[in-house]
Amino acid sequence: MSFPSFSWDLLRSTATLIVCSLAATVLHHPDALVPPSTGVLSDPHIGLAINPRVTPRVVNCTGTEAEALSQAVPLAIDYIANALAELEHEGPEGDNYRRWFGAPNRQRHSTVSSHFEALARDDLPGYTFICNPSACTEHESECAFVDYTIKGVMNLCSGFFIAPNRGRNSRASIIVHEATHFFRNGFTSDHARGESESERLARSFPHIAITNADNYEYFAADACSRGGALHSLTDAS
Ligand SMILES: *[C@@H]1O[C@H](CO)[C@@H](O)[C@H](O)[C@H]1NC(C)=O
């Protein structure tokens, strides 16, 4: 019986990659070109966790790439904290939850929350980030990928570095996306990619949406964007 190993391989192949499907848009995104704005605001609605600047472990990265990571990693941690805060505050009825995880459902909400809790406990600043590994050239459109069996190692391709700092399909949200692939952070797959596919997945197949990395990425990016100032505080540090 080869089914178990076949399905394992299938999972493995779908769980390791993220395609930069919006690479063309990202190239012209103003956030990719201009420095982040500064400003101080606070969000009375969601408890924000402002993380200090970090110096992530990098391999084969230029100074510019390492600098981009030192901003993106704390922002990714903030995204996760905000996602968790919003899940707790709004429960399964929240607009953001419905958009990315579909019809309100306590059990699914609890699964999503447990994955964000695992992400929040994870040591993202302790991850190793490999810049432009040779595997990037085999898949031109990829912006980042992980092998979920190699915990805490993220491979970043050029698409990652031309992505904007924040928001959906940003460096910060891509890190959240990739981190959800690891076994203990949800072991997500890439069933659907991009915003419209992921929204459609949530509407039609919410039980699959809660296993899809992009849905976590967009939920976290949107939860954070309501906080507004979070980015500025982190970016300005
Ligand atoms: C780092 O770059 C060197 C030189 O190009 C290469 O041989 C090595 O495999 C790279 N390391 C990783 C982890 O990709």
UniProtKB/TrEMBL annotation:
Q: Which GO terms describe its biological process?
A: proteolysis
- Source species, domain of life: Eukaryota
Any idea what this protein is called? Lysine-specific metallo-endopeptidase domain-containing protein
Q: Which Pfam families match?
A: Aspzincin_M35
Q: Which InterPro entries match?
A: Fungal_M35_metalloproteases, Lys_MEP, MetalloPept_cat_dom_sf
Required co-factors: Zn(2+)
Q: Which family does it belong to?
A: Belongs to the peptidase M35 family.
Q: Which residues form the signal peptide?
A: 1-23
* Domain Lysine-specific metallo-endopeptidase stretches: 85-221
**Gene3D superfamilies on file:** Collagenase (Catalytic Domain)
Keyword annotations of the record:
Hydrolase, Metal-binding, Metalloprotease, Protease, Signal, Zinc
**Which GO terms of the molecular function aspect are on file?**
metal ion binding; metalloendopeptidase activity
